[in-house]
Amino acid sequence: MVLSRINASAATLTKNRTEGSISPISGMCATCVEGCVGMCEIGKSAYRGAEAIYPQPFGIITTASEKNYPVDLSHFTILGTVVGARGIEESSDKAIFSNVNLETKLGRDGSIKLRLPIVTGAMGSTAIAKNNWDGLAIGAAIAGIPLSIGENICGMDPNVRVENGEVVHSPELELRVRQYQDWQQDGYGVVILQTNIEDTRLNVDKYAISQLGVEAIELKWGQGAKDIGGEVKIENLDRARMLKQRGYVVIPDPDSPTVAEAFKQGKFNEFERHSRVGMIAEDPFLERVEELRQRGAKYISLKTGAFRPADLARALKFCSRAGVDFLTVDAAGGGTGMSPWRMMNEWGVPGVNLWSLAVEYAEILAARGEHVPDIGLAGGFVFEDQIFKGLALGAPHVKFISMARSPMAAVMVGKTIGKRMSERQVPVYIERFGTSPEEVFITASELKERFGDDFDRLPTGALGLYTYMERLTQGLRQIMAGSRKFALEYIARDDIAALTEEASIASGIPHVMEVDEEEAERILNA
């Protein structure tokens, strides 16, 4: 069984000449002939070199792995029952899905309120995030879920003011924070600001906490899409030079006269800006957490990626010793605004494996009476069934699901619909619902009643995200009601069963043919 697609992908704008006859090992055409202009990834690399490493076109896409992992969430099934009800009165008039409570709380003191167990994945300095931020921030705020702001916002801000090596003003970061805070409802949610090495050197957290009222800081070790630092493309020579001066790794070197001349002549049109990778050790980590607390951070979290299992153990142990509020475990197979394409497909521990290890390690700490932070899972979650399976797989330690690509997709669709409406070019498959936001977005009447005249200030991207979240809310309630779980705290590992032996081995979840063996025998022999 071939697990990977090699040498041709829509993500890299490449394809094979002999699409019906491909070598499964190399991904090359079965017959590679002289005279081909090089449509495949090898061919494109022959004339564009390292440009072919990255998904394209940059700035208007998000991407995720095409790898077919041996085990994923589809290899589990959700178990329902006809008896009982947890979290509600055992009454057919009370135990209906609309009464399922999806609210939860995060943090050591449980003071971060969420209307549903979802946190937006951190989106940083990529163009796709910047261009859709109003929809993402406002949509998350009115949905009552936390908003994660990604790395490098201040470092990439052309109007940032730095004094004595510290950020003292960043219009871009202020905008991203305020767009959420201005629409935050009844104390639900929180802004989570992610920081990397460059952010730490600029003391971004100090500025955000003291000047912008940010309460939660997320330390970043990595992500599931890649095992290097963040990267973006830069299409302006002066901007590339500015970023190099601010301490980023920029390639090719914009200060080289030869490189600058080649750029001006159009021989290439993009620079790469890269962040550095961290050098993790326990004592510096504990010191950094304490420093953040001294600066006024109310909540501290860690985002770790799909690194080897020992690094996951480090993440949990360090978070335990530091008293970190919550930990996000991001697995291979998820998505990003821009990551090296082959790395995204071939690097990292896949979701079910990594998440299962996280639960195993958390249990070891819990058995010793040590602090276990609230855990969130990330890596390709899209719909309510996956959310339920993730919560069940990680019970009782997993408290939320982090989602990035799918919320961004909802925002982009909502924004596009709004743009087409303003242009009076609503597509036919949308026009059948209407030609105005009030007609097309099914949640519009509720939001109009809720916000009154302010409804007209809601960007259609935010309507898209909110409406998507409402779909997830109802879908998750229906699944939970079928399992007779009427609050999130009652979801347990025995609410799912493995459909394959491989899934059972990886997760420790019993195979569906082994579930309830003893109870079934007892019932039959009664």
Quick rundown:
Helix content is 39%, strand content 14%. The model has no long low-confidence stretch (mean pLDDT 95).
Structure in words:
- Helix 11 links the parallel strand 14 and strand 15.
- 39% of the residues lie in helices and 14% in strands.
- The strands form 6 sheets. An 8-stranded parallel β-sheet has the order 5-18-17-15-14-10-9-6.
- The model has no long low-confidence stretch (mean pLDDT 95).
- The chain has helices at 41-48, 127-131, 133-143, 153-156, 171-181, 197-201, 204-212, 237-245, 257-264, 282-294, 309-322, 341-346, 351-367, 384-393, 405-422, 428-431, 437-440, 444-451, 460-482, 501-507, 517-525, and strands at residues 63-64, 76-78, 104-106, 112-114, 118-120, 147-149, 161-163, 166-169, 191-195, 216-220, 231-234, 249-251, 271-274, 299-304, 326-330, 335-336, 374-378, 398-403, 496-498.
- The protein has 526 residues and is of the alpha/beta class.
- The protein is globular, with a radius of gyration of 24 Å.
- The chain folds into 3 domains: 1-53, no CATH class; 113-407, TIM Barrel, CATH 3.20.20.70; 411-481, no CATH class.
- Helix 3 packs parallel to helix 5, helix 3 (133-143) packs across helix 19 (460-482) and helix 10 (282-294) packs across helix 11 (309-322).
Helix content: 25-40%
CATH class of the largest domain: Alpha Beta
Number of strands: 19
**Average residue pLDDT:** 95
Give the name of the CATH superfamily of the largest domain. Aldolase class I
Shape: globular
Q: Major β-sheet, in short?
A: 8 strands, parallel
Q: Give the count of helical stretches.
A: 21
Strand content: 5-15%
Low-confidence segments, ≥5 residues, pLDDT <50? none
Backbone CA Rg? 24 Å
Separation, N- and C-terminal Cα atoms: 46 Å
* CATH fold field value of the largest domain: TIM Barrel
